[in-house]
Specification:
By secondary structure, the protein is of the alpha/beta class. It is 45% helix and 11% strand.
Length: 446
């Protein structure tokens, strides 16, 4: 009797194929880049994700320490051929079904407005730092200001607006409550009381809101709009001219391009959301065509700017080179832009602080309200100690250099930075704190 032939349900075969699909694609990776100059190199086109470009090196040390295995897993995960599609599909699902934004620290508001949650807290006074800390910081700023003035250098503090404050009407109702006070209100109060030079752009933007012909903040961006950045730049130039008693090259525009698609950084968060399809902007944004006065005799006031990411707009539009005599931008008082050594990443701790300060005509600190709790990132404290107690400043900074070197190494290594990011998320601490803790471990101090 002939044996019966086995038959399989099409559904079973389909299920097996579905289960094996991820495994099969796991062996498929993006093309290997032959060199850094290889423009045909293909990898996941995802914004904000750290991608390990270099293949892990196999040797005795990396094998027995376990580093090779860990880095290889990380590399294979980054270069899986379906990485981009799966990430974008997952993010799209969370956004469509729950209006969740898969960008750390950002939330969706009304009418699809995107906010940094921390900036909402700032707008409603939910991130208050001790009032005494603000007073002490601004008293030190006054000492630094007076010391610099004897050297012909002016200090200016600029308080920039945040999107949570400016776009309060689009914040989800669950965040809204009566406001008692804010860090911004306290900084303005004590800056005035201690006679520290300052410019309150937050209040200025609020006053412009009803009359501005174009949006000063975009729907899908974190920072002020390009148009808002132009208004801010023009206002800052005027404030420095008044403070330092020097003419700077004029910034102007005769033509404004008004479009319904975002340019520059006006949709920077949307780009980081890594969606399959973007929501509709439903907003016209303005892009002035900038004109700089070409007068080398005026472009002699060198301005050093210590700021958060809000100043990047002005850097991209050419304010430092065209109006501030090529003055540097110290991003969070850390990264030096442009680098004094082309091709090499230089951080502030690697410089001679006294020499750097005294090579400028104006020192400007510009921070948005969401970053007021870390205003200046210790620039004021360091400058205060430098000028009032130079010996203790030198001793402290010399002792700290090893940790800072390891901190720099972590920031520049995708693998180490990923570990620090994971540590920060697991322990609910800021990334900077996680990086420093890991650097202390590497230095054998923790």
């Amino acid at each position: 009797m002939a044996g019966k032939s086995k038959s399989y349900s099409p559904l079973l075969l389909f299920a097996l194929l579905g289960l094996s699909f991820p495994m099969l694609f796991g062996f498929m990776q993006y093309a290997t880049r032959e060199s850094k100059e290889d423009l045909e190199y293909n990898k996941p086109n995802l914004t904000g994700l750290l991608i390990s470009d270099a293949k892990p090196e196999l040797n005795k040390t990396t094998w027995f320490s376990g580093i090779y295995q860990s880095e290889t897993d990380d590399y294979n995960n980054d270069h899986w051929s379906m990485k981009e599609t799966m990430v974008r599909g997952n993010n799209q699902m969370y956004y469509n079904l729950f209006r969740q934004i898969r960008v750390n620290g950002f939330v969706s508001g009304k009418e699809d407005y995107i906010f940094s949650e921390g900036y909402i807290f700032s707008a409603f006074g939910d991130d208050l730092i001790p009032e005494e800390n603000i007073k002490t910081l601004l008293q030190k700023a006054k000492v630094v200001q007076d010391t610099l003035k004897t050297k012909g250098i002016d200090l200016l503090l600029v308080y920039a607006p945040g999107k949570g404050q400016y776009c309060k009407e689009y914040v989800q109702d669950k965040y809204v409550h009566p406001i008692k006070t804010t860090n911004h209100a306290r900084f303005i109060k004590y800056s005035s009381e201690f006679k520290v030079n300052h410019l309150d752009l937050l209040t200025y933007f609020d006053n412009l809101k009803s009359s501005s012909p174009y949006p000063l903040f975009p729907k899908f961006g974190h920072h002020w709009s390009y148009y808002g950045a132009c208004i801010a730049a023009d206002t800052i130039i005027g404030a420095i001219e008044h403070l330092h008693k020097k003419d700077l090259p004029d910034l102007s525009w005769n033509d404004i391009q008004v479009v319904d698609s975002s340019r520059s950084r006006d949709a920077d968060v949307l780009k980081s959301m890594n969606l399959l399809s973007s929501p509709s902007q439903n907003m016209k944004l303005a892009y002035p065509v900038l004109l700089f006065e070409q007068n080398s005799a005026k472009n002699t006031t060198k301005v050093l700017t210590i700021s958060d990411s809000y100043w990047y707009d002005q850097v991209y539009m050419g304010i430092p080179s065209n109006c501030f005599a090529g003055g540097q931008f110290w991003y969070y008082n850390n990264k030096v832009i442009p680098s004094p050594k082309p091709g090499e990443k230089i951080e502030v701790w690697q410089l001679d602080l006294k020499q750097e300060i005294e090579s400028n005509n104006v020192i400007m600190l510009l921070y948005s309200d969401g970053n007021l709790p870390k205003f200046g990132n210790r620039f004021i404290e360091d400058a205060f100690e430098l000028f009032t107690s130079p010996e203790s400043y030198k001793k402290r900074t010399d002792n700290n250099k090893q940790i800072q070197q390891f901190t720099k190494e972590i920031r520049e290594s995708p693998f180490l930075l990923k570990k620090a990011t994971a540590y920060s998320e697991e322990n609910k601490i800021p990334l900077d704190s996680a990086i420093r803790l890991n650097a202390m471990k590497m230095a054998g101090l923790n």
